Amino acid sequence: MFSTTRTTKTLIRIALSCLTAYTVLAHAGQGTTLSSVAPMRGNTSASANFKGSSNGNLPGDTNVSKVNVHTLLYPGHTTKVLVHYLPWWGPSPRGVDVRYRSDDPDQIRRTFTDMTSRGIDGVVVDWYGSQDFVETAWRKSAQILGEFPNLSFSIMVDSGVYKFHRCQGCDLTQTILYYLRPLSKNYFSNPQYLRYSAQPVVFEFGMDAVGDADWAKIQAAFPEILWVHIHKQGFDLDASRGAFAWIDAPAKNSILPSSPASRLTSFYRYAHTEPAKLTVGAAYKGFDDSLAPWGKENPKHIDQSCGETWLRSFYLVNSQYSVKDQLPFLQLITWNDYEEGTALESGIDNCATLSVLRSGKSIDIQLSHASTIDHIVLLRQKGNELFQEFASYPPDTTSIPLPQQSGTYFVQAIGKPFLKNTISNSIVIP
Questions:
Q1: What's the mean per-residue pLDDT of the chain?
Q2: Dihedral sign, CA of 274, 280, 281, 284?
Q3: N or C end: fewer C-beta atoms under 10 angstroms in the chain?
């Protein structure tokens, strides 16, 4: 998205004075800027050494759209967009080598910078207890988060707390209570901790699969916590204060069709019957856990459909909520779970192809998968990786005026939020 200042407008008029007069089409009602960009360089926090993976994660040097994620939501929304974050990449080998460590301060800063640049409001940290590497990485991250005051954070207490780090002789309820004490002490007083109705929001994940927790007892011990549970049980549990949607993927070889859209629709419709409870929606690009240790024998799968799965999950939100009936929070699933093929960090493949052809006094544009494109820009090359943006056009543009100034020009299709950007072949004007 481009903003315009009085100074920028003056620069544009000077820069375009040597071009043939033509109307520059502004995108989304905003003006066009003249700026130096590097449109072919990877622009995410993902490692440039990550080469992509067979379960649907793009390489780390992919050029990813920085269009604000909020543009995918309904007009007038007040929804806070959170992203599920797993700071577990470190010393232990996992199913995918992402080529970075979650406890590296430089990587942490790159991550928060990248999140902020895409319009994310906060992170939901998948937490495995105070004895886990995740806690080590997140304690470092929480300190650096202060440099990004617009980002909030909340904790999701994962069932791994009980499976891997239960306190000696403790059942599930006792284990949760045991870890809530340091959790409360270390994080709830942080001014960036996520609150709703003045209460700290805490998620739980997968506890029903490892035991039967006494949530009434847990809530009574920590009455300040606003607990949010997974799926419909978040609405059904008496002690629950809210529910969050999650990916419900079928087996990869299942003969039954995947129906994530219907599951999300059911979640939102049920949420409307429980207005007193907090609703956290979901958006994701797809799912494939075939590289995860827990998914190799019976992998689950939701096809990305060239970015349409991602866009459809926003359509479902927009079909159920409005300015008069707001969705409080939306969780993006996930920032960096590369093992389950849900990593948004390195972008989403929209399968777009873009080619241009000089035709008389115009440049003809051929673009596939235009529904995944936010806008098109005209670029003039100024150096090896330095380009100048001259104009912005709607995604359905098929022809633009040919500049008369000599140089090498490119057309770039800027994807909708989180989707891959695509650049054309060159047009050389001698």
A1: 89
A2: negative
A3: C
CA 14 to chain CA centroid, nearest Å? 38
Q: Whole-angstrom Cα distance, residue 187 to residue 200?
A: 9
Q: Say how far apart CA 59 and CA 43 lie, in whole Å.
A: 11
Taking alpha carbons only, the member of 382, 418, 358 closest to residue 37 is: 382
Collapsed DSSP state (helix, strand, coil) of residue 182: helix
What is the value of pTM for the model shown? 0.89
- DSSP helix/strand/coil, 409: strand
Contacts of 261 (CB under 8 A, 6+ apart): 312, 313, 316
Residue 15 has pLDDT above 80, yes or no: no
- Residue 77: name the closest of 273, 418, 320 by CA: 320
* Angstrom distances, CA of residue 373 to CA of 67, 315, 370, 417: 10, 15, 5, 9
Query: Which residue type sits at 78?
Result: T
User: Residue 425 carries which side chain, given as an amino acid letter?
Assistant: N
- pLDDT number for residue 118: 97
The arithmetic mean of pLDDT across residues 41-46, rounded, is 83
For each of the domains in the chain, give its residue range(s) and CATH number, in order of start.
Answer: 6-34+352-429 (2.60.40.10), 69-340 (3.20.20.80)
154 versus 24: which is more confidently predicted?
154
Residue type, 95: G
Task: Name the residue with tokens 């204060």.
Answer: 241
